[in-house]
């Protein structure tokens, strides 16, 4: 295999003629500059052996296709073809209905799979250090659970105290806003168009009365059911994550075995690259969101933004949303900072404008561009489509899914168009 790859690297690919044989076309597709092969050093022994066998089978299939003349597609039984197509449409409709009914379970599975792919690079790093995979999984998953439990034990009491303080101090905060010069000036200029006093009174009633919080949540019983469902979902995702993390190589090999042996190498190339990119992307997003929240908390504590710790938690979750998350976090912090003073809001907004530039041009290229590289326009389209289909989870996974589609187009579709 090493000799094959060295020989391809030394000679530049030449586009075959239209009338060239299947073997020449396949060789060109396999050596196209856009095509990247899987790193066999990152695979386990069984997957590596399967990959080598698939490469040999692909070469044998190329030779067989070169000797076999192309067959024309002739419809001999139109009624049979129509029946088959109709049956396929009915099966597709039935499958779509099943997917619609199983949306919640599918979201759990997708979330657990992405978390497992995010933790898998750490497990493989421990394997390269000589630690067996089972022990490495125990260390990584145990550390992950400990970190989550520690953060929850710190964040939940903090959020509870901050919410209690917000309810108690809401009347004073809203009253102070109405006496500030900037609010009086805005009210004088635009008060005939918008009743700002009524808006503040509505916000004050909503925040300061606990019964309103229960109504927003659908009642106390529904709020309790929602919390229980959330905890159940977290537990299910953690259990599925452990299973996926422990059996990820086996799952991938089972998926590869469903593909024909002669075409298995290409599927393995794409799949290995996709899983590596997804794992790096998730790890990078968590690191960037954590940095955003910590640095934002330090800034808010210094300039005096109210409820800095509670807002920092919101900033962390917003920063996980690709592209628009940082903008939403900036708006959130600036609006909360207005309750202190316009100067505080301006300082917070200026800080986040500077931070977004540093994140976009310094942090993100260093952390993210090595694993995924997606044009900004496609990021927006992917985030909107993912958010529409699967909500927040869809927005979070939009970039790796978009990167996967681009990878398939570049490595499969584009090379084929150059020989037609």
List the helices and strands and how they pair.
Elements: H1 2-10, H2 22-30, H3 45-67, H4 78-101, H5 103-128, H6 133-178, H7 181-190, H8 196-208, H9 210-216, H10 220-257, H11 264-303, H12 308-319, H13 325-337, H14 342-367, H15 376-417
Describe it for me?
This protein has 420 residues and is an all-alpha fold. The chain has 15 helices and no strands. Helix 2 runs antiparallel to helix 3, helix 6 packs antiparallel against helix 10 and helix 12 packs antiparallel against helix 13. The relative contact order is 0.09. Residues 1-11 have low confidence and may be disordered.
Distance, first to last CA: 29 Å
- Secondary-structure element order, N to C: HHHHHHHHHHHHHHH
User: Main β-sheet, in a few words?
Assistant: none
Average of per-residue pLDDT values:
75
Low-confidence stretches: 1-11
Q: How much of the polypeptide forms β-strand, as a percent range?
A: under 5%
Q: Level of helix content?
A: over 70%
Strand count: 0
Assign the structural class, choosing from mainly alpha, mainly beta, alpha/beta, alpha+beta, or little secondary structure. Answer: mainly alpha
């Amino acid at each position: 295999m090493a000799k094959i790859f060295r020989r391809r690297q030394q000679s530049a690919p030449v586009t075959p003629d239209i009338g060239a044989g299947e073997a020449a076309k396949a060789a060109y597709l396999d050596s196209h500059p856009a095509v990247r092969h899987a790193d066999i050093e990152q695979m386990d022994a069984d997957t590596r052996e399967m990959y080598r066998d698939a490469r040999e089978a692909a070469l044998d299939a190329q030779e067989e296709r070169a000797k076999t003349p192309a067959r024309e597609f002739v419809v001999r039984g139109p009624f049979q073809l129509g029946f088959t197509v109709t049956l396929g449409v009915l099966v597709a409709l039935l499958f779509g209905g099943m997917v619609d009914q199983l949306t919640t379970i599918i979201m759990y599975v997708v979330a657990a799979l992405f978390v497992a792919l995010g933790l898998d690079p750490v497990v493989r790093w421990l394997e390269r250090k000589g630690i067996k995979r089972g022990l490495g999984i125990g260390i990584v998953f145990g550390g992950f659970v400990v970190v989550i439990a520690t953060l929850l034990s710190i964040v939940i009491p903090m959020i509870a105290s901050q919410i209690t303080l917000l309810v108690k101090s809401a009347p004073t905060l809203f009253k102070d806003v109405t006496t500030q010069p900037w609010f009086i000036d805005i009210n004088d200029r635009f008060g005939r168009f918008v009743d700002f006093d009524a808006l503040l009174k509505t916000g004050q009633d909503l925040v300061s009365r606990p019964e309103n919080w229960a109504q927003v949540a659908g009642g106390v019983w529904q709020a309790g059911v929602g919390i229980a469902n959330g905890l159940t979902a977290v537990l299910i995702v953690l259990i599925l994550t452990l299973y996926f993390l422990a059996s990820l190589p086996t799952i991938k090999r089972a998926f590869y075995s469903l593909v024909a042996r002669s075409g298995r190498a290409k599927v393995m190339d794409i799949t290995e690259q996709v899983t590596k990119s997804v794992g790096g992307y998730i790890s990078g997003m968590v690191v960037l969101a954590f940095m955003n929240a910590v640095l934002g908390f330090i800034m808010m504590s210094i300039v005096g933004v109210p409820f800095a710790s509670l807002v920092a938690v919101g900033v962390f979750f917003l920063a996980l949303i690709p592209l628009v998350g940082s903008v939403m976090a900036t708006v959130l912090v600036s609006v909360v900072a207005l309750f202190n003073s316009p100067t505080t809001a301006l300082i917070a907004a200026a800080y986040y404008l500077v931070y977004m530039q540093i994140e976009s041009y310094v942090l993100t290229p260093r952390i993210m561009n090595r694993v995924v590289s997606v044009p900004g326009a496609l990021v927006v389209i992917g985030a909107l489509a993912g958010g529409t289909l699967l909500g927040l989870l869809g927005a979070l996974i939009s970039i790796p899914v978009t990167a996967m589609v681009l990878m398939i187009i570049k490595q499969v579709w584009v090379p084929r168009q150059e020989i037609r």
